[in-house]
Amino acid sequence: QVQLVESGGGLVQPGGSLRLSCAASGSIFSINRMGWYRQAPGKERELVAVITSGDSTHYADSVKGRFTISRDNAENTVYLQMNSLKPEDTAVYYCNAFTIAPEGASDYWGQGTQVTVSS
């Protein structure tokens, strides 16, 4: 089992910045990759960015050049630095951990944090 706790959401004006944090606890040794997803009202949940245990990263085209995912292994925390925010970035952002263990693969999700970009 992996527990994920997110923080850092809020209200920001267009062009502003926010940093989301996701602290992992529990069976963290089994985590293969972590990422951020988002879900806007009336839309499906979509991938924003992922980072693997080898520090490879992948971004959605819509956030490339504006968002940066990083990790602090000592703190078991993943961050999402969001710059040049746009109204279309408004969504609930969810932290995800994908684990691989002898019993199989699993997905774990945080509770979500609201990001609102509005003037």
Overview of this protein structure:
It is elongated and about 50 Å long. The mean pLDDT is 94. It has no helices and eleven strands. The relative contact order is 0.32. The strands form two sheets. Strands 2, 4, 5, 6, 9, 10 and 11 form a seven-stranded mixed β-sheet that branches. It has a four-stranded antiparallel β-sheet with strand order 1-3-8-7, with no helix packed on it. With 119 residues, it is mainly β. The protein has strands at residues 2-7, 10-12, 18-26, 31-39, 46-52, 57-59, 67-72, 77-82, 91-101, 104-109, 113-117.
Helices, strands, pairings?
Elements: E1 2-7, E2 10-12, E3 18-26, E4 31-39, E5 46-52, E6 57-59, E7 67-72, E8 77-82, E9 91-101, E10 104-109, E11 113-117
Parallel strand pairs: 2-11
Antiparallel strand pairs: 1-3, 3-8, 4-5, 4-9, 5-6, 7-8, 9-10, 9-11
